[in-house]
Amino acid sequence: MINIRKLESELWESADLLRQGSKLSSQEYCMPVLGLIFLRYAYSRFKYVEAEILKDRPVRNGRVLPVESSDFKQKSAIFLPEKARYDYLLNLPDDADCGKAVNEAMELIEAESTQLKGILPKTYTSFGNDLLKELLRIFNNSALNEINDDILGRIYEYFLNKFASAIASDDGVFFTPKSLVKMIVNIIEPTHGIVLDPACGSGGMFVSSSDFVNVEGINANSAMTFYGQEKVEFNAKLCIMNMAVHGLNAKIKSGDEANSFYHDAHNLEGRCDYVMANPPFNVDKVKAESTQNAGRLPFGLPGVNQKKEVSNANYLWISYFYAYLNDTGRAGFVMAASATDSGNKEREIRKQLIQTGHVDCLMSVANNFFYKVSLPCSLWFFDKGKKEELKDKVLFIDSRNYYTVVDRTLNEWSEWQMKNLNAIVWLYRGEKEKYTKLLQDYSTQIINDCKELDTEFESVSVLMNGYGEKLKPLRAQVADIIKNAEDINQLLPLNDMLKKYTTELNASLKALFEYGDGLEKEEAKDFAKSIDESATTWDRFKKSVSASLEEVVSQIKAYRTVIKEAKWLTEKFGDGTYTDVLGLCKVATIDEIEEKNWSLTPGAYVGVAPVEEDDENFEERMTEIHKELLTLQAEANQLMDTISANFEELGI
Q1: Is residue 325 left, alpha or beta, with left meaning phi > 0 and alpha meaning psi from -120 to 50?
Q2: What percentage of the chain reaches a pLDDT higher than 90?
């Protein structure tokens, strides 16, 4: 089985290392590299479809008829002329102009696909021959031949997110972090019909929607029609390639005609089953008259200044998202946190919106969820098909204290954290069966993790040379719990047991190393070889064993995190009964919202949770802070070296 995370990381590290050795900026490097990933996908898809066509190919005069472009069109695939095929480019002669050849390949593909016309990058002559050939080699990985597993789609998204950290911010337009995209999709649950993103960026909402229905065995292209508007041409090209790499069809408009403030480019007002977006926040200088003429303003214009401009477009976006929905449509979008409580005309629009009964849920998000910027935001959800008993209610969730720290500048939700927040919405909607299924998923995951841990330990116990014997009783206890557990609550004590497991493992390793360190050099070497024949020195043996044990300890930490998330959920909602939780969630009536002057700020309703002491989390956080401090010190030292070098050049 392919380790996709490892593959993503290895490919990125290789490609980024090449960029660092070139004179190209991330912006200059981004589109061409993503284009090569697309080219690799197109080739894998071509070979896969070609094999399917040849299975039933007629034979004339003893020869199989050659495949043609028309054969591929019948399979909704792109035919690749020989000079557009990845293997052709890989095997170019050493003296060939590689950049020119790749540019020609892109042109040939565009000639075969109207959807890609004018989209693919053709700047490869700016790359040195050696750089481009090495990039082609990097993406010539046999794992990328697996079309059905969407591996290349995953690789494309991974690279897109990595590039986003370098080129994310541009006049308030941001790439949407994947955890926010998935949260929106998981809550509005797109399964059919018209799906619109009027600020579609690189197309993450569409891809995530496809992932959502694929889990249910639904083909996204058959079940849904994707429409997008994106004013920035660069982002629109990324989107179209992104859709192509995932095998998705979409109707994307870009440029001036796709400026959502002045154009409903696809004429979709009142027709959409689902709307989702991460629009640019706090846009100003929007022409009021042109905006008024473009429609989709069921609650009227927000505030207009003396220059006849809308000075903050947040409520234009909010109005558009509502106006696009049909009678049962759902919307989910990211919005600046300030919009939940803004005053004047915006409060009046918010009041009218709330009184429709179609505001479903508001979720506050912590800082640092975006690349490069730390701005707080909220997720808004509309549902025109709400159950009658929920129409006078709104669910408020404050998730600002619930997230995973990626590094000192970036936070995200883990997969299980997303599921837990999603579960609150399920219970509010009365969908207890989904909550019950999640508890079953937790139980299955925890049991499988513990079994995998035991198997993993068996493989490293040989290296421990008997020093892991103290773990046997603990392993037996873990095995007994997972064998006899009847529900998730009986699995939760495994968290403390796995903590002891880590402690004992580290102690056993320490004892092994102390014994070996106490031997003479040759004795230590012989001792190492008696355990592992490939060992050449005691120190190298120690490094090898340490690496193996570190991997096990890392796995234990990941397994314990799953148990902690299961505990977080069950402590609050038990076997599946919604209840307001102080500091986390509350269902408020429209009357209660009116009492708070039509504010939709979750914190105003959920209150503040009592501070919970957690010595273990404190210890982990102190370790993280120490690592962050070391990183900052290294950056400071590098900066001082640069400053000193500059002073020397100036003769100071």
Answers
A1: beta
A2: 54
